[in-house]
Amino acid sequence: MSRTRVYIIGVCLLFPLYAGATDLPCDSTDHPQICAFLNRYISELQQWNEPNVSVFQKMRDDKFVILGGTLDAISLCNDSTAFSLKRYDNKAYEAAWVNRRDTLLHVAFPIQYELILGMPQIEIERHLQEYIFSASPRKETDLSDMPLDSIDPCIYRSAPKQHYQIPALNNCQYFYRDGHGDLQYVTDTAQTAYTIANLFQNGLEKNYLLQVSQSVYGFKHLDCTISLQQWLNYCASEHLTCYVAIEGETDDAIQVLVVAENTDLAYNHLLSVLIPRKALGDVSGTLLVKLNAFIPTHNITDLYEQYTTKPKKQREWIKD
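Given the sequence above, the corresponding structure tokens read:
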């Protein structure tokens, strides 16, 4: 969720924002969704056969630009082909395949999740539940090499990373050392902020259910119930970084903001979560969630400000 300097900056200003071929050389470990797109899209261009739309028109419509090389030359890729991927802010990517000094193909395309995922926004939004339910279980976090800061007596914090547009959010995790000196996640009703931060990073083995009301295109809503663990599995499988902040508290509940960011595709999911205080001390419970999904990164600040300035109506959250 980046390209030749002088030319590509000009190209960026124009951006509004698997068919049978062998996988192209690509950095699929760090950028799996971008690599999947490049393989799919380039294969599609090579096999393009629409009588009323030329392949050049398709590329113009998608703002996919060939800067060097040719579509035919990409078939010369081999094990020694060098692949590079550059990024220009949240505007564009630049990808190139080179055999020694020969550029096989050099392309630029906008960072636009509808293009990269190959679906319009309305369809992507309606597939979100399917994506969540089909996500594979995430791997257990290895704490042995995690850099930590001591912030309170006996409390340690992972290196903080703030959301670059919303400073109140960060992705920290919080730990203490048990009697054997081993790191354990803070999960303590007396340490509410630390526990809630850990909840949306690790899950803390809680069997919480999330009752989700998802806003979708056309001022409509999709409602579903998922588990917290399913949500975290989805975040891991889609390479989403979760940022958490407490928005407000009452005697009965805590309202939490979670932003899950996909850096490669430049979109965010924004969740406002109501956590009953009594649930924090229990293994199970039900959390009410309002979800805005697939928000382009350049829009996230505006939506956040609209949300935080809107009056909160408790009756919308608390069930009788």
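Confidence is low (pLDDT under 50) at residues 1-21, 313-320. Try to locate this feature in the token string yourself.
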